[in-house]
Amino acid sequence: MLLSAAAATAQEQAGRAQSPASQRPPETVKPQTYSSELIRAGEGRFMAECGFCHGRDTAGGETGPDLTRSMLVAEDFRGDKIAPLLRSGRVEKGMPSFSLTVEDTDAIAAFIHDQKTKMEAVGGGRRGVDPEDLDTGNAEDGRSYFNGPGTCSTCHSAAGDLAGIGTRLQGLQLLQRMLYPTGAKAKVTVTLPSGNTVSGSLASRDEFAITLTDASGERASWPIGDVKFTIDDPLAGHFEQLGKYTDHDMHNVYAYLQSLR
Length: 261
Description:
Helix content is 43%, strand content 11%. The chain is α+β, with helices and mostly antiparallel strands. The chain folds into three domains: 23-122, Cytochrome Bc1 Complex, Chain D, domain 2 (Orthogonal Bundle), CATH 1.10.760; 132-182 and 237-258; 187-233. A five-stranded antiparallel sheet has the order 4-3-2-1-5, with no helix packed on it. A hairpin with a 3-residue loop joins strand 2 and strand 3. Helix 8 (139-146) crosses helix 12. The longest helix is centred in the middle third of the chain and has 21 residues, at 102-122. It is extended and about 70 Å long.
């Protein structure tokens, strides 16, 4: 039994070692420092040109990888590799070319290196989540949970609105959409003391007041105790589900959604 336990522990450690997000990023080959003015200028240019894909802090975004883990960045010295890449792009990987001045590329390189230095100073290897870190669930168990009473299939269909979702979304983006969806707005109908009703999108609600935005874009608010109201929130089921999921449930459903291609 002890031998089996030791073997299992070794396998778990090996699995973690293979996880890209759990490994330390490559060290900078030639450490370098930059002026605070150049770093600030680079931060502005980076957020304007690169932040959408690579994140505002260079640690990865919607479609771009974590630059603090990039071997090209690790081997770069004062922009000698970053600048040519910015100008030529990598169209085959979805990265466009940029028309930037030497001053702009120098500043962007300075910001990237400064962020990499800060990340290294934090310690520990985990700074993000790679798809391999999430692939621990069982798709068949996830399908059973998805189709269970009072769960996902109450509102969603694998052959309908979720058809092909495993192709459209992968990794953390899919898990985030599954657990914390956005986009659909809650609708509210307020019944006034006169009996008249006002409807619109829910703007806010607390223990004191309820506020909506009507079709014209105008906001209206009433004290909670003065009116009656009903709220239709298409995302409510997702947030209720958060209180029911176990960790295994979440990864199993994720695995099932990932299989819908």
